[in-house]
Amino acid sequence: MSKPDYAVGQSWTYRTRPGEEASRVAIRRIDIEPEDGEVFHVSILGVKLRNHRLPGGIQPAMHHAAVSRASLDASLLEPDGHADAEEHWRDGYDVWRQAYDNGDAGIFDLPLADVLGYIEMVVAASGEAR
């Protein structure tokens, strides 16, 4: 079986968490890194990410995640047109890029639904808002 042709600007359906079936993945950028090979920078839109730091406690998007091809292969289902042109992902990318170049960040190799769960766990562990 051949590898899917993932490209910048695509929107995809994926194996979502329950209750987030309308969520989509937008491929924002693809880098080639010596240590990790292909690194896909994606936004996961239309989610209900628990985040006690925000009013209402829900974050509707994960604007940036750096993931492997294996992560996309395990998650993406069907192309769903073109991604929106929003630029919020660039802030997260810039933070990731600096940390990655310093050896302080990596990439996710998990299905995207598990990435969301992991992020919720990390945010929850950072302490509840007071």
Automatic annotation (TrEMBL):
<protein>
    <recommendedName>
        <fullName>ASCH domain-containing protein</fullName>
    </recommendedName>
</protein>
<dbReference type="InterPro" id="IPR044935">
    <property type="entry name" value="DUF5086_sf"/>
</dbReference>
